[in-house]
Write a structure and sequence with these properties.
- The protein is α+β, with helices and mostly antiparallel strands and about 90 residues long.
- The protein has one domain.
- The chain has helices at about 15-25, 55-60, 75-90, and strands at about 5-10, 35-40, 45-50, 65-70.
- It has a four-stranded mixed β-sheet, covered by helices on one side.
- The chain starts with a strand and ends with a helix.
Length: about 90
């Protein structure tokens, strides 16, 4: 089972996030979904992972905690940009 942040973010293009989450937890393929995680690499802040990567059992087991999901790569990039901007504005 994947690790999900309690209040994970969802992009505007996501119509039924719980349904998608359940499919991903079951190891099923979900087309066009990208997941946001905090990076394990200290040089990076976030990672954008295509949900299709989770079909690889080895990657499924080591997937870091998911903090958001987006429909399409462009929406995922927009979410990351807004997270970074919010962080800098709050400081």
């Amino acid at each position: 089972m994947l690790k999900w942040k309690k209040d994970y973010l969802t992009g505007e293009g996501i119509e039924d996030p719980e349904k998608i989450k359940n499919k991903l937890d079951a190891g099923k393929y979900v087309h066009g979904i990208y997941l946001l995680t905090l990076s394990d690499n200290p040089s990076n802040l976030f990672e954008i992972i295509p949900a299709a990567m989770l079909l690889q059992k080895s990657y499924y087991r080591i997937c870091p905690e998911i903090i958001g999901m987006a429909k399409g790569k462009d929406e995922a990039l927009e979410m990351v940009c807004s997270l970074v901007q919010e962080t800098y504005v709050q400081r």
